[in-house]
Amino acid sequence: MKRLKKLLVMIMMALLLCSNVVTVFADETGYQTASDEARDRVRGSLNRYYTDLKMMNDISEETIKKMDKIYNSAMNYLKFANLSEAELKSYESQIEGYLKKYVEDDEVKYASTEKFLMLSNEVPIQSAEYNQTAFVVLSLINMGKTDIKDVVITPTVSNDIKKWPFVIEQAYDAQNIALIKPASTAEEAYANRMDIGWNFLVSEDVKTGCYPITFHARYYQDGTYTETDITTYINIKGKPENGKLTGDEEDEKKSKPRIIVTGYTTSPETVYAGSVFDLTVKVQNTSKETAVKNVLFNLEATVEGNDKTAAYAAFLPTSGSSSVYAESIAPGATYEIAIEMEVKSDLAQKPYVLTVKMQYEDEECTEYTDTANVSVPIKQEAKMDTGSFEVMPESIAVGEQSNVMFSVFNTGKTTLYNVKVSYESDTVECGITYLGNIAPGATGNVDSMVTGIAPDMGDGTVTAVVTYEDEAGNETRYEKDINLYVYEMSFEEDMSGDYPTEPIEDENGKTVSIFVIVGIVAAVIVVVIIIIVIIKKKKAKKHKEDLDLLDEDDV
Q1: Model confidence over 37-65: pLDDT tens digits?
Q2: Are 184 and 144 in contact (CB under 8 A)?
C-alpha cells in the first residue's frame, strides 16, 4: 500500500510537470487546451462517479480516507490543468481506475443500505446557458432486491443561486413513477432504469460552473415508506461579467450557519400511548458570527402502518399545527421549541423518531434547510384483571386444604412478565403459583391449594396477591380479597358455654350445621345407653330364673 501511495504521488507530480510542458508546447505549436466548460464537465462527471462508487459499495473508513485524497487532488488539478479534451478524458479514466482499484482491494460487495434508489452513471451531465430553458433528466435505477413502488420526485427549490441556478416561476410539479424493478448489476439496472425530466429556465445571474441540483424522493419498498435525496449536476454557462463559480466547498460548509438539536425533554418524563405530553426541543445556532432569522421548525413524527391508505403519524400536535416560528437566533444562542403532542393509543411500546425540519436565512437572506431527529420512547400502560374466584370449600378446619381457582387477563397492549400469585393471611399458607409471561390479550389460569394453619378470629378474608413486571423490571402489585373461613375442629363446650356455630360441609359438599351433628351424636349415645340397660336387665332376669330352678332341684 505504501508503494502504491508513492506511485500515485509520483504520477500526480508527473502530470503537473506535463501540464507545464504542455503549456510551453501549446504556445509554440498552437496546442489547443480544453475549455473551462470541458474541465467543469469532467469534474462533475468524476464527482458523480466517486459519489456512486461510495454509495454502491460498503467501503471501510480507512479506504475512504485514501480515496478522498486521490479525489480531492484530482479535483484541484482539474481546475487549472492545461490539457486537451482528449487528455482530460484520459486523466478522468485514470482517476476512476485508481478509485475503483481501492474498492476492489478493500474486498467489498454492494452495500446493504436502504438507499437503493440512485442515479445511473450512463446519463451524461447536461449543459445549459443563462436565460435558456434546460431540460434536467433523472435516470433512476433500483440497486435493491425488491421492487420500488409509488415513487414521487420533487425538486428541492432554494433561494441560494448556488443550489438552485434557475428562475423560480412556479411551484414545480412532482413526477411519479409507478414501479422501478430491482437489479443486481449495473447493466441490469441500466436496462430497468426509469427516466423523468423537468424544464427549468436558467437565471441570468448565474456564474459559469457545475451546479448540484437536488431532488427529494419518496417511495415504498417491501411496504416500508422511505424518503431520500437525489443529487444530479448541470454545467451552466453564465454571462462573462458574472464570473465563474469558485470557492472551496469545504470552506463554504464551514461558513454556513447551522442549527443543531442539543437535547429535548418531555412532561411528564414517561410518555404513555394515548396520552398528551409537552415536548421541548432545544436547538442552538452553532455559528459564532452569523445570526439566523425567519426560522421555521416543522416537527414530523414517524409514520406507522404498512398500508399507505391507513398510515398515520405516531404523534399529532393538539393545536393542529406542527410548525413553530422563531424570528431570529443570535450567534451561539439557544432556542427552545415547545409544542403539545398527543400520542396514538395503539402504538407499540418502543422509541419513535420525531424529525425536526428547519428552514432559515442568514443575514444576506440566503435560505438554508437542515434536519435533525429526536427519539421519544413510548410506553404502554400494563393492564390486568381477574375473573371470578372459585373457593372450594369456603370453610375449612385447621390442617385442611381448600382449592382456589381464577383467571388472570392481560387487558393491556404490553406483555406482563414474571406473573406470580400468592396469598396473604394469618390463617392460611400456600406456596407461590408462577404463571410466567402473559402476552397482550392472553389469559393465565390459577389453580392453588391453601392450607389452614390457624382459626380465623375475623371475618374470614384472605388476600390474593398478583404481581408482575414490565420490560424494565419494575414490579406492580394487584390485590383482591376472597372469603375463606378457617376454624378449630372441637365438640367440647368452651368456658363461656358457647358452641361453634359455623356450618361445615359433608362429603357431598352440602352445608350441615354443627348443632345437627352434635344432636346426632347425642342421640346415638342415648340409644347405646338404652341398649346396654336392656341387655343388663335381661341378663339379671335370666340369672334369677336360673337360681329359682336350682332351688327347686334342691327341694
Answers
A1: 888 888 888 888 887 777 667 677 788 88
A2: no
Which residue type is seen at 339?
Answer: I
Strand 401-410 and strand 443-452: pairing? antiparallel
Cell numbers at residue 16, please?
503537473
In DSSP notation, 156-176 reads ---S-TTT--B---S-PPPEE
Report which listed range, 170-184, 228-242, 297-311, is most confident.
Answer: 228-242
**What is the three-class DSSP state of 251?**
helix
| Cell numbers standing for residue 137 | 433528466
Span between the terminal Cα atoms of the chain, in Å: 152
C-alpha distances (whole Å) from 541 to each of 304, 407, 545, 552, 554 are 105, 72, 6, 17, 20
Listed in order, strand segments (DSSP E) in 163-302 are 175-180, 194-201, 209-221, 224-237, 259-267, 271-272, 276-285, 292-301
SS3 state of residue 369: strand
Check pLDDT > 50 for residue 269: yes
Question: Which are the contacts of 202, defined by CB distance < 8 A and separation ≥ 6?
Answer: 128, 129, 130, 131, 132, 133, 134, 165, 166, 167, 236
Q: Cell triple for residue 401?
A: 386444604
Distance CA 417, CA 409 (A): 13
3-state secondary structure of 20: helix
> How far, in Å, are 152, 304, 305, 407, 484 from residue 223 at the CA level?
15, 11, 9, 39, 56
CA angle 390, 393, 395 (to 5 degrees): 120
117: which strand partners? 142
Count CA atoms closer than 13 A to 520's CA, side-chain side.
6
Q: For residue 474, give the C-alpha cell.
A: 419494575
Residue 497 has pLDDT above 70, yes or no: no
Contact 341, 277 (CB under 8 A): yes
Question: In this structure, what C-alpha cell is assigned to residue 172?
Answer: 414545480
Cα torsion 19, 24, 29, 34 to 10°: value is 40
β-bridge mates for residue 417, sequence order:
469
Nearest-Å Rg of the Cα atoms of the chain is 45
The owner of cell 412532561 is 267
The DSSP H or E segment spanning 408 is: strand 401-410
- C-alpha cell recorded at residue 226: 422511505
Give the pLDDT band (50/70/90) at residue 437. very high
Task: Report residue 79 as a C-alpha cell.
Answer: 481546475
Give the cell for residue 532: 346396654
What is the separation of C-alpha 147 from the centre of its chain, rounded to a whole number of angstroms? 24
Condensed to tens digits (0 to 9), the pLDDT of residues 11-20 reads 555 554 444 4
Residue listed under C-alpha cell 376454624: 487
* Mean pLDDT value of segment 25-32: 49
| Rounded Cα distance, 532 and 544, in Å | 19
How many C-beta neighbours within 10 Å does residue 453 have?
14
Model-wide pTM > 0.85: no
Q: What's the length of the chain?
A: 555
Strands annotated E in 470-551: 475-483, 485-487, 504-505, 511-512
Q: Quick count: other Cβ atoms within 10 Å of Cβ 546?
A: 9
**Could you give the C-alpha distances from 435 to 381, 388, 420, 447, 537, in angstroms and in order?**
20, 17, 6, 10, 70
